[in-house]
Amino acid sequence: MNILWILFIAAVICVTGDRQGFPRLSSKFSRSPSSKNHETDIIPKPINRLVPIKSNPILPFPKWLTDFTGLKEWPGLDPPYIPLDFIDFNKIIDTPRHQQAQCSNPMLRTPTACSFDCFNCVDFDDVYTCPKLSQTFDDGPSPYTLKLLDSFNATNTKTTLFTLGINIVRHPDVYRQSHARGHIMGSHTWSHQFLPGLSNQQIIAQIQWSIWAMNATAGHLPKWFRPPYGGIDNRVRSILRQFGMQAVLWDFDTFDWKMLDSTNNRKEQDVYNDVKRFQVRNQAKGIMLEHDAILKTVNVGIEINKNILKEQLTIPECVGGINYIKTFQ
Ligand SMILES: [Zn+2]
What we know:
single chain, alpha/beta, TIM Barrel, five-stranded parallel beta sheet, two-stranded parallel sheet, 10 helices, 11 strands, globular, binds zinc ion, Glyco_hydro/deAcase_b/a-brl, metal-binding
């Protein structure tokens, strides 16, 4: 989730398609671990290297989405806010907006704000750990995702993928195959923005377009949501809950993305050693943060799955929750 997407060529293909009408969302929650504070390996996240993405959307823009939004093509990095009748702005908790790693506002320390990115604060419905240490992957789908999932086939385990809307519409077949193989598809927003720095409307837009990309591709509405950069506070949560979704955080960050920048001097073996140490220290429990957008981090994910964590759970298995809020067809 720490991979910043900036170089995005915003040309889009306008093709009309057909799909079911815009679905209403339920707000059913599933059980999640309840806890106050917890120890994590998380440190303030630096904005790291840029990853150029040059492909255009290939997923047809569905007719039901044109009917609902009045638009005819997938948006770029700044998706438009479309009003939704089930969102009550009076239920959105008012916390100060802040940018990534700018945590000096004392309000952010309070339980009212409960900032995870600043102070590792988790709320009652956040999922951040698991009875079995399990991998999760952010920022796909990518051309490397299925290679990663082949490894999970070999160990007969499933994983959880937190996907970006902009990448779903570029790699819809990868998304469909990942889902068809039984892996859990979660949302990681439309275009990887740091949500606590956005307006309420911009946050809603990041979530709604992500859900629409998932629904248009595989006919389901996600339950599980991972905020980019761990950027979540009670304002973001109070919006997320109105979509019926729950935040999934982590208690072990592999910092796999640091391998991509030689100035970090982080090697594959460093990641493996850190995983093994955490496994011992945390009694083989936990949720790990990894990325499936880059070949190098995918190869590390495969190695961890094959040689360290052969038995794993998906996020709904971790908490006894549902896979999706709703599936169609
Ligand atoms: Zn991410």
